[in-house]
Amino acid sequence: MSQADPIAFASERRATGRQRRAWHLGDLSESNGWAYYLLIPSLLLVAAVAVYPVGSGVWLSFQRYNLLRAPSPSFIGLGQYDSLWGDSVFWTAARNTLVWVVVGAGSQFLLGLIVALALNRPRMRGLGLLRVGLLLPWLLPTVVAGHMWSLLLDSRLGVVNDLLVRAGILHSYVAWFAQAETAMGAVLLVDLWKNFAFFTLLLLAGLQGIPDELYEAAEVDGANAWYSFWRITLPLLTPVIVASVILRVIGLVNSPDLMIILTHGGPGLATHVLSLLAFNNAYTGFDFGAAAAVATVMLVVLMLFTSAYVRVSGVTRE
Amino acid sequence: MSRSRRRTQQLYDALAYVILICAFVFAVFPIAWTLLTSLKTNADIVTTDIQYLPLHPTFQNYVSLWEQAGFPAMFLNSAIVMLLTVLACLVVGVTGAYSLSRYRFRARGQILLFYLVIRMFPAVLLLLPIFIALRVLGLYDTHLGLALAYTAFLTPVAIWILKGFFDTIPPELEDAARIDGCTRAGAIMRVVLPLARPGVAATAVLIAISAWNEFLFALMLTTSQGIRTWPVGLQLMVGEYQLPWGLLTAGGIISIAPIVLFFVLVQRSLVRGLTLGAVKG
Q1: Closest CB from B96, B188, B264 relative to A132
Q2: Are residues B270 and B191 in the same domain?
Q3: Is the ipTM of this complex over 0.95?
Q4: Is the pLDDT of residue B277 over 80?
Q5: Beta-carbon separation of A206 and B104 below 8 A
């Protein structure tokens, strides 16, 4: 702001001198709309490939549109939602999604926080190598992560089974992904492995932003570590916690990748979640109307959750 | 007093090491196991007695994977899509982030928030209209179409990270360049971008990794062998050919090798860039 006036003045002077080359990037940068010109490409692109599709996707959910059976869309109002309401598969998937999100985000947050607290001790040595190893799973493709774990947990060749039997914890090998009781837990374990580092990364950044003086002052007043954690660390970390939990919940709700790779929602419906239901409707059923209705429900629930969570946690109050 | 304090600190340090080493083993063991498996012969993988170390270490799995099943072609496809995405994201992201970092204008806050909210949209919901639109435009099942979808997704991320890096560069340096006769665009090219190079590199790597790894869009938006990226190809090979574990693990290791390499190269600035955005955002 402070420099706006001299710049405008200089650019006016220059503009008269170089009118003939107005198309030139350097001259364009001296014009008044420069801040906006820089933004336009990204805004256009995101609007075209993200905002328009969402609007159009929601619109699609009010139509009957099946590439195989009804290849031209016809408006049916809330028809798709009506059939979802009466569909027991939808409700099972909704229940599973709740478990998937609550247990998934909860376990990843806890492990991520513990590791972040342990990493936030700058005097310690050898943290660089540890940190690279800890962050690696988060960077790996889901496809490879999924197959790594389906080998580790394999019912005949799995090393986890072998170790557990050797340790005397199990009597015989378990088909972790193929039993209704263990399948969800096994997929949750894979997601914990893959994504706890996301929390570690963000929470560590938050921890490093807390001034040491606060802890020193608390110590002078006789506070122990437990007390400092609850009274200093957690309150100051709240904005980062809220942001990271929201992002992770969004990720968990929206990505069916691990289910597609590991269980296809099975056995039975044990790991069937809403994102997988939507994806299957579109990818294997070509029923875009039904898929859009499920996805729209997910979007609405996510928006409600996010606004409620932000309000309850009070991060917007400053 | 201070002695007992030092002892508690040492205790905490020890506890921290125990936690970190346990978590490190949890994080790295699956990767190490995959690497070991990829070096085993099939007979050593499919046994009733699990072999922990490769008895007859061999690169045969890698060789046969590379020779069969179009793996090199899929790698090339992934590389093309990745390069297109990184280029587009950087051009669009650098300009957008620079504007949001340097100038204060109406709707600036809303635009920043908007780029955050984009991430809430379910991929599945975006997929359907994008699928339909790409078919209409003739971009369905092309490298360009897939890269376009990735760019739209990753641009907001790139803008947030790059903005964090630009914020740390003092505007006075540009002012000095302008006094010496640079245009604003010239000051960006000659002063800001060279200074922000670690940040731009970190952003490029993050985008590259995301595009390289992406599965869901690639599965939905490509069909032909000539376009298919490796995550989809690998997954379909597992389904269609009952891919043996040796080949599958070799495929996994080859595909993550570039990621590990990239990550180790820019690790420091990548972590810094991600956290800059997080703390301020």
Answers
A1: B264
A2: yes
A3: no
A4: no
A5: no
In this structure, the answer to whether residues A71 and A91 fall within a common structural domain is no
Residue identified by tokens 């505007």 is: B171
> Which pLDDT score is estimated for B276?
63
Task: Establish whether the linkage from the previous residue to A267 is cis, with ω within 30° of 0.
Answer: yes
Question: Which tokens belong to A6?
Answer: 């001299």
First to last CA, chain B: 41
Nearest residue, CB atoms, B281 vs list A130, A243, A303: A243
Do A143 and A31 sit in the same domain of this protein? no
Query: Which pLDDT band holds residue B231 (cuts at 50, 70, 90)?
Result: confident
Judge if A71 and A105 occupy the same domain. Answer: no
Q: Is the pTM of this model over 0.90?
A: no
Residues B23 and B109 in one domain: no
Contact between A278 and B124 using a beta-carbon 8 Å cutoff? yes
**Contact (CB<8Å) A53/B28:** no
Domain end call among A44, A75, A106:
A75
How many C-beta atoms surround the C-beta of residue B229 within 10 A? 28
Residue A264 corresponds to which tokens in the numbers above? 């296809």
Domain that holds residue B9: 2-38
Please identify, among A75, A90, A107, the residue that sits at the C-terminal boundary of a domain: A75
CB contact under 8 A, A148 and B30: yes
- Based on the fold, state whether residues B217 and B85 are members of the same structural domain: yes
Q: pLDDT band at residue B29, thresholds of 50, 70 and 90? A: very high
pLDDT at position A130: 85
Q: Chain B: residue nearest A304 by CA?
A: B120
CB B245 within 8 A of CB B119: no
CA-to-CA distance for B162 and B201, rounded, in angstroms?
10
Residue B237 to residue B228: CA distance in whole angstroms: 12
How large is the average pLDDT for residues A250-276? 86
- When pLDDT is cut at 50, 70 and 90, the band that residue A318 belongs to is very low
Q: Which domain holds residue A92?
A: 80-313
A243/B215 Cβ within 8 A: no
Q: Please give the tally of structural domains in chain A.
A: 2
Residues in chain B within 8 Å Cβ distance of A52: 129, 133
Asked whether the beta carbons of residue A46 and residue B20 sit closer than 8 angstroms, the reply is no
Task: Give the gap in angstroms from C-alpha A181 to the nearest C-alpha of chain B.
Answer: 23
pLDDT 10s digits, A93-147:
889 999 999 999 999 999 999 999 998 876 777 777 888 888 889 888 888 889 8
Q: What is the pLDDT of residues A150-207, one digit of tens each?
A: 888 887 878 888 888 888 888 788 888 888 888 899 999 999 999 999 898 888 878 8
Same domain, A36 and A95: no
Q: Is B256 within 8 Å of A204 when comparing Cβ atoms?
A: no
- The answer to whether B78 touches B215, Cβ cutoff 8 Å, is no
Q: From CA A310, how far away is CA A229, in angstroms rounded?
A: 22
Residue of A39, A305, A316 to mutate, interface with B, max B Cβ within 10 Å: A39
B24 and B109 fall within a common domain: no
